[in-house]
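User: Can you help me understand a structure? I only have the sequence.
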Amino acid sequence: MILEMKVPSPGESITEVEIATWLVEDGDYVEKDQAIAEVDSDKATLELPAEVSGIITLKAEEGDAVAVGAVVCLIDTSAAKPEGDSPKKEEKKEEKPKAEAPKPTATETKTYATGTASPAAKKILAEKGVDTATVSGTGKDGRITKSDALNAVPSMGTPTGGNRGSSRSKMSMLRRKVAERLVEAKNTTAMLTTFNEVDMSPIFALRTEYKETFKAKHGVSLGFMSFFTLAVVRALKMYPAVNSMIDGKDMISYDFCDISIAVSGPKGLMVPVMRNAENLSFRGVESEVKRLAIRARDGQITVDEMTGGTFTISNGGVFGSMLSTPIINPPQSAILGMHNIVERPVAVDGQVVIRPIMYVALSYDHRIIDGKESVGFLVAIKEALENPIELLMNDDIKKALEL
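Assistant: Let's start by predicting it. Here is the structure, written out as tokens:
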């Protein structure tokens, strides 16, 4: 019996996927539920498991865009399992490495330099003002072909003999979708960014005193994301327009806080969502951030886990960013950018002191968020982070940290 395996729907509104990688080869024997391919949708990378056991025949190439419901492979269930395990695709690749092209010897280079070029190539090189001695031919016996001449780059200065190679690769469907959404956000929103700075000394002091106890009790670190997330939840309650979005001619405001967190995954930027962050404690936020980060790193994030956020936090500081203007994650109306923490001289009570300072940025859609609200929101974030014991912990540190 021949089973036709079709592309399952990874989620609503997704009509096609892209074959990112085949994990098996044509003619391999596969077991039921064995992962046979990785497929990219515009929101996530998913594994495609075999529906039955048998010999597989591939019907699509890596990089092909395949409609949901289309046949991607056939599995012959009547075929007997061969003795021994079939080698994995990766192992086969390692067994047959591509041989590197031999580098030209000094003698060969000298031969090229004498200008063994075809008449057409000589004409093109002359028009470009390129010396044949600087061009390595790919034709027989090092002959400079017309294609070599067309690809030759005129020297814009002193020749250095350095590598001037380039490569072209197709962007994944996820990366293309991210690019489209970023351009859409820039073109369809009235986006502005406001900035402020935060003295992180109080949070540093809390983490220094309680991080070991917190980790021993809960199995997760006491990081900055829990402080920022709870500060954001507080600010969203104070400024509900920031927790809103535009739908046609309507403005939709939410009484819950689904916080998207931008993380870097193997396929590019991913933005999983912490649901109902207003109900999470410090431990709850840190546990959820860790869970989502691991799933993103391992390529296990689902479409559902990345949809429906009402506000986004992006932490460029982990990569060393000092300051940025983050781009709104549509259809949301605002995004908070965190940056690196640097010791800076600041004035406190008329004295210059050194404090760990973080610059923060709020990009927002000015169509529904006024300047007063955006500035007030960011000031509320600053106040909560500089006075976390009172504003985020209700003056009870051990209860807030569940110690």
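Now, to help you interpret it: The longest strand covers residues 351-365. Residues 86-99, 104-114 have pLDDT under 50 and may be disordered. Let me know which part you'd like to focus on.
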